[in-house]
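Hello again, I could really use a second opinion on something today. I've been puzzling over a protein and I'd love to understand its fold better. I'm sending you its amino acid sequence along with the backbone structure tokens. It would help a lot if you went through both lines with me. I've dropped the whole record in just underneath, so have a look.
***
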Amino acid sequence: MKFHIIIAMLLTMGLVAGGVAHAQQPPGAAPAAPAAPPDLNAIPDKMPFNLPFGPPISIDRAQSVIQAAIAEAKKRGWEMNVAVVDPNGDLKAFERMDGAQLASVPIAQHKARVAARYRRPTRAFEDAVQKFGFNYILTLDDVIASRGGIPLVEDGKIIGAVGCSGGTGSQDEATCTAAANTINK
């Protein structure tokens, strides 16, 4: 019983101290304004992320995208799972590097599928939830709000997507960006 009381007191003191430290400003400094979320009622002139779907990526190109991702991951000492899908989000090629975590196998595929079907990087969903609090995004079918899925665009058309998983979101995204850059030029 005493242990629970001590833990509660320590947590309360930590929250109070954190709030006081957060509230302090340098002398003469104006408080920082939080970033305003986008207006959900705004009606854009054009459809966002409105790239047309093209012919599916070939197996040879899909494998070269995977090899570019693996080269980037090896250069940085990361073990990754890398998936390439066609425009419909169906798996075209996959590699799991030695030592990559097994839980990330379906996550890499999920990121690639969402990037292809929604025609945007999965970071767009992460930002919507994390930066703007648009939790309704999580109710959309098959969404994953985590970086590491990037559409593959050739001649202005989506030919597939690449998804990486196994590291932090920023590591996954960096690996995918290097791979996508072999096509998205």
